[in-house]
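Two proteins follow. First one:
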Amino acid sequence: MNKKICAWATTPEYIKYHDSEWGKPLHDDRELFEMLILEGMQAGLSWITILNKREHMRKVFDNFDAVKISKYTPAKIEKLLLDPGIIRNRLKLNSMITNAKAYLKIQKEYGTFDKFIWQFTGGKQIVNHFTDMREIPAKTAVSDTMSKTLLANGFKFVGSTICYAFMQATGMVNDHMTWCPQHKKSKKR
């Protein structure tokens, strides 16, 4: 690697994700829903596991179509539990259905999930100015509030740490190191 980027981007998969997605403001409802589900799926696992399974999960989870997922049956969950290409955790799969239903209610109430979720940062990206990875928090007061609000609205697997990771992934917060070329670029998406 000849360029200096955030220290966690150490594999080709991580570098691609770092350079093309992580920290760039995301406003597409379906993609926001996908990232919320994937962050919940990641709990207790490495993010590389999620990246390696993401394309297959998109396929078997109907491209994270919340309407379709909200209608998944217990029989569908049993079938999914046999698929080694996904995260085979019954609680996480059931929470995906619960979250799809909660997401659809939020969309109906707010018009878009984007409008609802970005309210936690006042509709703007929080730009941090970290120079060392050890400075990045696991959670913040904002992620605490987001977590409590999502839980109150029926979501599952949305603890404060998961919410902060979601905020980083979707560009609600820019935690690229100030010396990383993506620090400036992530604000422009």
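Second one, unrelated to the first:
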Amino acid sequence: MKINAKDYVNSILPSWVKNKKIIITGGTTGIGRATALLLAAMGNDILICGHHQNQLDDTLRDFNQLECTGKMEGIVVDLATEEGIHMLFRTFDEQYDRLDILINNAAIAFQSVKDGSYSDQDYLLRTNVLAYLACTQAALLRMEPRGTGHILNVGSMSADVREAQSSVYVCSKGGIQAFTESLRKEANPKGIQVSLVEPGSVGTDMQPFSPEEQQEKIDHLEMLYAEDIARTIAYILSQPLRTSIVHTQVKPLRQII
């Protein structure tokens, strides 16, 4: 019996994620921004949040130029605060009747434990760890009654590499790795997918390199574009319900770790 090649391909390749209602934290810069634009272009409705109005305006301007079938809205909030978490989900609930996907991505960089003050380190942990927990809690309250949903946490390969002079950031990303692994065991039996994406070196404003230096590293295959991680996230979210992509690491070909 002959099989049509197109039917064969369609039976194996994912039917790309579309018509979903999605929250992306840290969606105005870097990986979050690239992911938001890609998912909106694929026909999804996105609510993004960020720290600065000018970055939000810039992202929405680029979205409007894409002429997407999906929608994108955004707000400026501080996810290191309880008020910011409530504002994010209140804004989402005012627009949509369900939450299909939460992408926890908002994070800030930090170096050695010897750097900064107690309040600086406190703020990093509230942004990089506690905000993930609080957003996940809010998402589960909306997903569990429907018995479906997907929570995707963006971590970092720093959780495993544990490079020197980055101990505070490593601490936060190690926490996200452990949290995601435990969360998956709680959420999967309730029909909710949980995934962790850990990028290597990516050209974003978190890097201590100039745009020119970043481009040079990208050209030498030592750094990724943010869009490379966005592509990975879209692939993970596009899998059938029976398939759970648990933990994915993506690094530049020539990054030595």
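SUMMARY FIELD: The longest strand covers residues 192-199. Residues 118-143 form the longest helix (26 residues).
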